[in-house]
Amino acid sequence: MTKPIALAIKWVLIAAAVVGAFVIATKLAEAGNTLAVVLAGMVGLGILAIYATRRGVPLKYLAPGVLLMILFQLWPVVYTANLSFTNYGDGHLYSKEESVTDIVAQSVREVPGAPRYKMSVAVKERASVETADLILLLTDPAGATFVGDTSGLKPLAPEGVTKAPSGKILTAPGYTLLTARQVNARSADLSKIAVPTSDGGGIKPVGLSEAFEGKPTMSYDAATDRITDSSTTPPTVYAPADARWTNVANPSQTLPQGWKEGVGLANYTRIFTDSTLREGFVSIFLWNLFFAIFSVLSTFLLGMLIALLFNDPRLRFKGVYRSLLILPYALPIFVTALVWKGMFNQDYGIINQLTGLNVDWLGTDLGAKTAILLTNLWLGFPYMFIVCTGALQSIPQDVREAATIDGANAFRTLRSIIMPLLLVAVGPLLLASFAFNFNNFGLIFLLTKGGPFNGADTSIGSSDLLITYAYRLAFSGSAPNYGFAAAVSVIIFIIVALMSIPGFRRTKALEEIN
Amino acid sequence: MSSVNAPVPADPRLEKRLESETHEQPTPPSPGRRGLGGHVWWRHLLGILALVWALFPILFIYSAATNPSGTLNTASLLPSGFSTVNFQALFNDESRPYWTWYKNSMIVSTIGALGAVFVGACAAFAFSRLRFKGRRPGMMFLLLTTFFPALLAIVAMYIIFAGIGDVLPAFGLNTLAGLILAYLGGALGANVWLLKGYFDTVPRELDEAAIVDGASHVRIFFTMTLRLVMPILVTVFMLVFVGLYGEFMLASIFLTDVDTQTLGVGLYGMTLGNEANTLFGRFTAGALLASLPVMVLYLAFQRQLVGGLTTGSVK
């Protein structure tokens, strides 16, 4: 029988989960996301149905993991596939309505004689001054202080705020103020900021320490779906075309704010038809394949040789050797890869110092690839050593003795007896290692970031793997293109799937599951 | 977890075999070979060569961390004296809260690993002990998911968690809770095969006896099975802990505020830009300390880990 205490715990947990789902559903409803509300409600009801009844015992055990897997592994994959058919990315981040709002706020022009604000540029406390969203700290001529960002203008409580005699804010609690040099470095971001005000106008920065409030010159007519710029004579009219607002009179001129829309297979056709991209993609793929194969073979060979070396019952201190040899594998990759990066430094690194060479390891095509392969050999051989040690111990002694009696020498025994048996045992692990190395993002990113970038297309690095290439498309560079990056990811998915089929077939796991 | 090292579980029987075999069993020396004991010196010689290859970068980390000048250009392979200058500089750097990173890494790895073990053990119990429709396809599907690293869907993950942050700020980007959730998504596929293989070794007669005694499935799972499979739970905990501790990619995208960063992201930031040379001593000091938890775990639980490694994560 179930104890009362266990029963109580069960019902408290069920109640907590249902209440949690309800709270999330309410918040989603506030945010206006109907579909998500329905999903949250279904999850809540599902929990109730699974755990409050006596039926469906397996589901009770599978539900937590499956729910997490669906939410954070499968859904992202589906989402990625979806994204790959859109133009989502820099300049196409928002809906069409949002692009209109932004264009109108950006078009604010100073009304002559209107007062100016003293402005300081800040980021949230402890956020990165190089990348975080910029925030304007403003002082109006009367001395009142405000905080403004692209979402709007809010008053800033004067407590803890210090101001220069001019009224410019010097410090404010909760914000890190940028120095003039830092502001200058982000002037491109600064020029894009427009703080919408409640009366339909906006506040925009002038220079590095002042801002003005003014009226918009752009207006949107929903009936004709046109944006009109009244600051020019005659007024310029923009019409939607290709997910951007395009000047009707001069189609080559577009506004920077576009919107997100479906583009069908355009991202895929671009990969296969744009010749620079296609050649880059092919060269990345070939290097990716070579890297994965070479890494598996080199680490396996070294690991196996060391395992064979220690596979002698007479040898002492094997435990000590093993503990020390495992260390490269035991250290976190961010430590080892970054230290190797330091060691490969051309001017100061100890690799050049010790060998007397003066190789630009990370700056040349060949150097970077060699450095990566060397580092991965160092990182990976302990794993293969351990695996091979285990497999070698499983080879019965009498098989070897039989070979010796038949007159086989040591090399012949190794080649014809030990190697085949070893490969049977570690084969699946070699495939797994290949699959891992094929997408070994951490090593490449930490060591070379895919560089150096010497080719015809500077977005393609000579030591890039497909996955680091997709990452760079999405997350760095001046114009992230999420849709295109997603298309590249989908292609990697397909490649991995195609390559894993043979391994999958061979895995005996397919044959029987008890 | 699958975003870290996509471990591909192999045949559970192989697993068991390797695991039992890597626990070094004393092999009795064959009688004919006795008396040749003097001929292993060359093995030691090559062994020491292998040690030199394996350990010189680690010696370099130590030398650079204790190097009083603390820059990359003055770092050498052999220690040039012992100094704690770099450690002091690291601990007193206001803009780089090292101990906060340390704490964050510990929180993420511990909670993430505990969660993964729990979720995995529940599912493994169902797959091993219960019979239901879709059991075999379910196992195969989990195996399939391990072939695809979650980080391929990283753009979508970023957008999804940005959306979650709008509704539930406690689980959005820049939060440890959000990062842990993201890691837990891959927990099932990565560990269930390893766990199920071990669950299968627990005799079913025990379950049947307990059922006859009137125990419910909940009671069997929590009070009996979980205790019997403790060794594999420890192994999986270690593997996931080490994997999450070293995870870098998702963390670097999720955690942009200095105070929420983990060791990997924080230390990586120290090797960027113009300051990389001057910060090198501090970086290696931090790297050395950051390596300690995993190093200790590896050495203390070598047997379990080696057993798990032969089928588990791949580097």
Automatic annotation (TrEMBL), chain A:
GO terms for molecular function: ABC-type maltose transporter activity. GO terms for cellular component: maltose transport complex. The keyword Lyase does not apply. Residues 285-503 form the ABC transmembrane type-1 domain. Keywords: Cell membrane, Membrane, Sugar transport, Transmembrane, Transmembrane helix, Transport. Pfam families: BPD_transp_1, TM_PBP2_N. It is found in: Cell membrane. It comes from the Bacteria. The chain crosses the membrane at residues 7-25, 31-52, 59-78, 285-308, 320-340, 371-392, 413-436, 482-501. PROSITE patterns: ABC_TM1 (PS50928). It comes from Humibacillus xanthopallidus. Belongs to the binding-protein-dependent transport system permease family. MalFG subfamily. This is Maltose/maltodextrin transport system permease protein. It is a multi-pass membrane protein. Part of the ABC transporter complex MalEFGK involved in maltose/maltodextrin import. Probably responsible for the translocation of the substrate across the membrane.
UniProtKB/TrEMBL annotation, chain B:
Residues 1-33 are annotated as: Disordered. Keywords: Cell membrane, Membrane, Sugar transport, Transmembrane, Transmembrane helix, Transport. Residues 102-301 form the ABC transmembrane type-1 domain. This is Carbohydrate ABC transporter membrane protein 2 (CUT1 family). GO terms for cellular component: plasma membrane. The chain crosses the membrane at residues 40-62, 106-127, 139-164, 176-195, 228-255, 279-301. Belongs to the binding-protein-dependent transport system permease family. MalFG subfamily. CDD domains: TM_PBP2. The lineage of its organism: Bacteria, Bacillati, Actinomycetota, Actinomycetes, Micrococcales. PROSITE patterns: ABC_TM1. The keyword Cell membrane applies. Residues 12-24 have a biased composition (Basic and acidic residues). It is found in: Cell membrane. GO terms for molecular function: ABC-type maltose transporter activity. Its main location: membrane. GO terms for biological process: maltodextrin transmembrane transport. InterPro entries: BP-dep_ABC_trans_perm, MetI-like, MetI-like_sf. The keyword Transport applies. It is a multi-pass membrane protein.
